Amino acid sequence: MCQALREIMKEDFEAAEARGLEKGMLEGMEKGENQLSSLITRLKELGRTDDVFKAAADKQYRDKLYKEFKMA
């Protein structure tokens, strides 16, 4: 295989890898937003509005709530 072809293949692979990483990040962000939205909705249904604000400000508390509601 010639050097030029190796270089083209390397560039194509790196571009595809970058697209895949970006797609994965966007999907992960969407999943996280959906999870938080579901948590807020559930807390609101239960009248736990103070927990909504605490969860928004405190990741550890939010993670505790995800476990409580079996969302994690």
Care to describe what's here?
It is a single chain. The protein is mostly helical. It has one domain. The chain is 86% helix and 0% strand. It has 3 helices and no strands. The chain has helices at residues 3-45, 49-57, 59-68. α2 (49-57) packs across α3. The chain is rod-shaped and about 65 Å long. The chain starts with a helix and ends with a helix.
Which descriptors would you attach to this protein?
rod-shaped, mainly alpha, 72 residues
Map the helices and strands:
Layout (H helix, E strand, L loop, with lengths): L2 H43 L3 H9 L1 H10 L4
What is the CA-based Rg, rounded?
Answer: 21 Å
Approximately how much helix is present in the residues? over 70%
Oligomer: single chain
Spans with pLDDT under 50 lasting ≥5 residues? Answer: none
Global morphology = rod-shaped
Mean pLDDT: 92
Q: How many strands?
A: 0
How far apart are the first and last residues' alpha carbons, in Å? 48 Å
Please summarize the sheet with the most strands: none
- One letter per element, helices H and strands E, the order comes to HHH
User: What structural class do the secondary elements suggest?
Assistant: mainly alpha
**What portion of the residues fall into strands of 2 or more residues?**
under 5%
**How many helices in DSSP terms?**
3
Tell me the number of structural domains. Answer: 1
